[in-house]
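The records we work with from here on pair a chain with its fold. Each token is a code from a learned vocabulary of local backbone shapes. A record is reproduced here so that you can trace the correspondence yourselves:

_____
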Amino acid sequence: MSFAKKTQTLLSVLAFSSLAACQTAEKANTLEQPAATEISKDAEAAKIIKKPSTTNKNPRDEKKFRVCADPLNPPYSSKKLDGFENKIASLFAKQLGQEVEYYWFPQRIGFVRNTLKSTIGDTQEFKCDVIMGVPSGFDFTATTKPYYRSSYVLLIAKGRGWDNITIPEQLRSLPLAKQASLKIAMFDRGPGTAWLQKSGLLEQGVPYQTMTGDSDNNTAMMIDKELQAGNIDMVILWGPMAGYLMTQHPDAYKLIPMKSSLNMKFDYSMSMGVRYPDKQRKALLNDLITKNQQAINKILESYHVPLLPIPEKKKHI
């Protein structure tokens, strides 16, 4: 890839506002958004969505805990119900005496519109009621209190001459010949690409799309295969996705956290998303998160998700 092309890719990343970048980069390949100029318009539409006849029902009285989810998006969700969002949904449903019901749709542009905000046929009943993982403060949905916070990490394949790297900044001062041999994944959006540019490593970037367009492999699965094949040596990846790779090959990779600075943010909080008018459901989920935070942490830790303390914030309403 030419330097000019890589620079063009980078500029397309930086064209997003900081909020849009947070929302697109948070979950790596999920909940992708249009350009920043389109976000505010669509977000306003999301806030004034017409209330269905079921909005005033108490969600505690419902028979089903209805989740909007991707059918193949490890480590978050899958039809095999082996993702950590599947496990947390099951935990909540069990406590409510409800059955988990999924509406499956690939997490790509239009995910919220086609799931949480979409009704069944000509009825006023929505297809699902909660997205189990969205960035805190996400524009397209109302968000619960955060239930975990993670960070991007530098994931390095072991045994390829990079085992002595202990902090990401070492890559900036490598001998020129060594630096020229580096192959690091570079996505079309997210803070990793901006970090490569600021570190003078854009030429070492191997470009990948955030959304694979492959129904059989999500981004984490694709990057795992690329690392195993030797096509790349390392990648700056969102923590839960890096944890998935560590789970697949426990001895193949080393993980180094990326540290946020005043000019570059790598750590984010994650919440659950509901429709803006659905205040009772949001309150219920907040209550379930508070009561089950320890159990949630154990689930996340079992998936090797790098966890950071959740900052104290004002009470969510």
In short: Confidence is low (pLDDT under 50) at residues 1-51.
